[in-house]
Design a protein that fits this description.
Mean pLDDT: 84
Largest sheet: 5 strands, mixed
Low-confidence stretches: 1-41, 156-165, 359-370
Number of strands: 13
Number of domains: 3
Strand content: 15-25%
Shape: globular
Number of helices: 17
Helix content: 40-55%
Distance between the termini: 12 Å
Strand order of the largest sheet: 11-10-9-12-13
Length: 506
């Protein structure tokens, strides 16, 4: 335990030294960026806002900006502002480059420019009718929304609905590619028609094209990987890698990035590169990234995504290992923002835990339970113990080995102040209970949730994939949660740490 704490302290100190040193240097690559970013500088974006009909939802105490996560996973970093009694709110967001965020449920796309000032007026009775005024951000956002309206394209919900499910298995590879190409061409044509009729900002011209192409390959590689797993006919992997490299070099060289870029690296570029290079377990990831990336910017994105995944897992040692090799100013800024937020939450877990267990009831979360929320019910009886809560479904294939591992881990901690609880989203019947018993879990410890309880969990931990884990300290405070809270992903180390203290970091 003592050794782990020292490592954590070293990680924090070293990370701060690295970041302070790197931020004092000007990245040489920046001088090579395209003209589209020559006037872009870093700085605080200030957002002031006012909410009409504030009294319509008096229990809504704050408003949230969601920033796409640097891991490329479907997770976000939340920045909150309290809503004052007079309906006003205010944000100051430190940005190294322009980037897209969301302000749900009001705005599913909001493009922010560093150093800009933006005023947003919202109406609680008309949540989808936001009015923007202010600086350059307004012009860019208006152009984006004109484009979305004219083309029907939304990067948040963009997918290839006609390609998935049975077609992935039953169609030929040529049919699948033809179908996907037709859908991409459909959006390409819509975009071209829009640009011919409208004069829009350079940022919108570049990013609307990048979003379509990067989203296409994210979906394309996903289909390719699934067919490879099923042993079906697929495109030759080196040829696919060449295509992925070509699109990456094209759209990662202008200095303008959106959430789509991170998703592309995580879901397409790294996935194909692993298939092509087939690295062994003992290959250093940093060396591998330098080998496969065609440019330094792509390399830095790969390492940023990996560092982001380490932060999701509360693994500060791995975060330090990857982040110290990133030399891109914008990515360094994003890394530092995420690091500060994660470390603050690790030092003060009660801030998030109290919100999760507080059973919020308002229009934004759409949660309405008649009693205490399901987590409060499960956690309260076992105050004084470290608690591990598993959430899974009987139909979930990856959940079954995790249940077996947790059952063995429960035996290892027998007689110690550790309690294991299980939440099942599948209907309570003998078949489901038999599955738990088969995996070594006492089915009397399984809580079969109601529909309302499921909606609470799905809204609170969005997105929630199965298996999902929640880790609770002796004081009943949630200190970690996510798909990574399971055996063989530092769970044992975290449990041991919580047996001697209340936080995952000192």
């Amino acid at each position: 335990m003592k050794k782990l704490s020292v490592q954590a302290l070293k990680s924090v100190a070293f990370s701060l030294i690295v970041f302070l040193s790197l931020f004092l240097l000007q990245c040489k690559n920046e001088t090579d960026q395209a003209d589209i970013t020559k006037n872009v500088s870093s700085g605080f974006t200030k957002i002031a806002g006012y909410i009409h009909n504030r009294d319509a939802y008096p229990n809504t105490k704050d408003i949230t900006i969601n920033v796409s996560h640097i891991s490329g996973e479907d997770r976000v970093t939340q920045i909150k502002s309290p809503i004052n009694d007079d309906g006003t709110f205010y944000f100051e967001i430190d940005l190294a480059r322009p980037q897209d965020v969301t302000m749900q449920p009001f705005l599913d796309f909001l493009y922010l420019v560093p150093g800009d000032s933006l005023h947003i007026e919202l109406d609680f009775k008309k949540p989808l009718e936001a009015q923007l005024s202010g600086g350059k951000s307004v012009e860019i956002n208006n152009d984006f929304y004109k484009y979305f309206y004219a083309t029907g394209y939304r990067t948040t919900y963009f997918n290839y609905r006609g390609v998935g499910t049975d077609c992935e298995i039953n169609c030929t590879w040529e049919e699948i590619r033809k179908k996907m190409d037709e859908e991409r061409d459909f959006y390409r044509d819509k975009r071209q028609t829009f640009l011919q009729k409208n004069q829009v900002c350079d940022e919108v011209v570049f990013l609307t094209e990048a979003m379509i192409e990067l989203d296409y390959y994210k979906s394309f590689v996903g289909t390719w990987g699934n067919r490879k797993y099923w042993g079906k006919e697929i495109m030759e992997q080196q040829t696919l890698m060449n295509e992925v490299n070509e699109v990456a070099v094209k759209y990662f060289n202008a200095g303008l990035y959106s959430n789509t870029h991170f998703k592309f690296i995580e879901s397409a570029y790294m996935r194909v590169a692993r298939h092509v290079t087939q690295p062994s377990a003992d290959v250093d990831f940093v060396d591998w990234a330098k080998e496969v990336a065609k440019t330094d910017v792509i390399k830095d994105f790969i390492l940023t995504v990996q560092a982001g995944n380490a932060l999701l897992q509360k693994n500060l040692d791995d975060f330090e290992k990857y982040s110290k090799h990133v030399n891109h100013e914008y990515l360094l800024d994003r890394l530092m923002q995420e690091y500060k937020i994660v470390r603050t939450n690790m030092l003060n877990p009660e801030n998030i835990s109290s919100y999760i267990l507080g059973n919020p009831k308002d229009f934004a979360s759409n949660i309405s339970l008649d009693d205490k929320n399901v987590l409060d019910k499960i956690i309260t009886p076992y105050y004084g113990k470290v608690q591990v809560i598993n959430i899974c479904a009987a139909w979930c294939a990856p959940c079954k080995p995790v249940l077996e591992q947790l059952a063995m881990l429960e035996k290892d901690y027998s007689g110690k102040d550790v309690h294991f609880s299980f939440i099942c989203i599948t209907r309570d019947n003998e078949e489901t209970r038999a599955l738990y018993r088969e995996k070594g879990v006492d089915d009397t410890k399984v809580h079969f949730i109601t529909k309302d309880e499921y909606h609470f969990l799905a809204n609170t931990f969005s997105p929630m994939s199965f298996p999902y884990g929640i880790l609770v300290n002796r004081k009943g405070i949630i200190v970690d949660y996510g798909w990574h809270v399971r055996p063989e992903m530092m769970l044992q180390e975290k449990i041991d740490l919580l047996l001697v203290q209340d936080k995952l970091i000192k």
